[in-house]
Amino acid sequence: MNQATTKKPRLAVAPREQAELAHHVDVNMPAAYQPRLLHLSGEMVEGADLFITSRSVIDLKEPAEPNVMPHRHEVSQTYLLLSPDNSLECEFDIDGEHFTARAPATVFVPAGALHAPRILRGTGTVVSVIRASHQAASK
User: Fold this and answer.
1) Has domain 29-137 been given CATH number 3.90.10.10?
2) Calpha distance 26→42 (Å, rounded)
3) pLDDT in tens, 61-120
């Protein structure tokens, strides 16, 4: 096997646990909540301009206390709701518009919009995609 095939890929990375995240309070979370994962950041891959995280739940019966505080970013954000059985439900409050979305769904948060998502019930994964510069620009 030559060195090119055994070398660690520069553009492919494995997700890692992301214990803390701005505007998130992860205390007293139900057992259904799995660890938050960081899939991509500029720290993980040089030049990456996206910050991608996910949080999975398994058979969540009822909502936990809200764990994402209302906040805004100077860039837009997109949430992907994925579920093997379409049971995942999340509520969103985006600039005063309150609604529930059920997987499979995509929720777009415009730049500057005050927002706070909350997982309500089910099994699945919420993926968050935002420009990497959001960390310095969050309010």
Assistant:
1) no
2) 24
3) 998 888 899 999 999 999 999 999 999 999 999 999 999 999 999 999 999 999 999 999
